[in-house]
Amino acid sequence: EIFPTELEWNVFLNPPMPGFRTVSAGDGLYGGHLYCWNDLLQQLQRIREVALNNYTDLPLTRRLYVEDIDSFRKVRDVNPDQVRDRLDGNGILQISEDEIQQGLELILGEVFHKKDWGGEINDLYSSLVQVNGRRVATAFLLKGNGLRKPEMRIADCGKHGDQVQRLFRSSAELFIVQFVGRVGEDVITDIDTNVQLLRKNRHNANYLVIDGLDTARLLAAYDKLPRAAETGA
To answer: How far is residue 62's CA from residue 126's CA, in Å, rounded to a whole number?
Structure first.
């Protein structure tokens, strides 16, 4: 059960055949077991040395959650109930896209603020995001309260509904879609389909969806959530 796939399990149970050995008379059974366990332990060490990256890489699942990101680790200490009152009656966190972007840039340590314009393929791009102790190139699609809808659908993603498709033109391994309300199932399905396609083409890819509640949790965890009076919430 300690191995992630049957490959490592079979490698462990089938170490290379040892060379010639001698076992003293009377202790053949004990000696045989001893040699067997030594072979298995040596094989386990080989797996650790050769395949260690397989155990510290991105999780095998396509979809990650905000708690899975090392760079966002403080969010694990923020219970949803602690920030639920920051969402209005429609479940929307009333802050702008620019406030969200600046908060994320500060959390990640980005020194350059990317200005928004209509034709960009992503709203924020960073090589400072860490997952499982490894830096991962990450592209963000961000949506603030300017949408004025409780749920973001495909049609809301860009003027032609193609913003998700443009996001996946980014040279990234992790794709993050954020909205201050609910993220529609059609958006999530579109994201998942694009990630599956990248994986079929042997490209490392994962995605993360951050809704309004998780946006509030993340910004609050790093003291980047504007006060209610400042946002009119």
So the answer is: 20
User: Looking up tokens 């200490």, which residue turns up?
Assistant: 77
Predicted local confidence at residue 232, as pLDDT: 46
Task: Let me know the angle formed at the C-alpha of 204 by 136 and 188, rounded to the nearest 5 degrees.
Answer: 90
Nearest C-alpha neighbor of 126 from the set 143, 142, 138, 112: 138
The C-alpha R_g of the chain, in whole angstroms, comes to 24
Half-sphere exposure of 125 (CA within 13 A, CB side): 14
SS3 113: coil
Of the pLDDT bands very low, low, confident and very high (cuts 50, 70, 90), residue 207 is very high
Tell me the pTM: 0.74
State pLDDT tens for residues 33-50.
666 777 777 777 777 777
Enclosing H/E stretch for 135 = strand 134-135
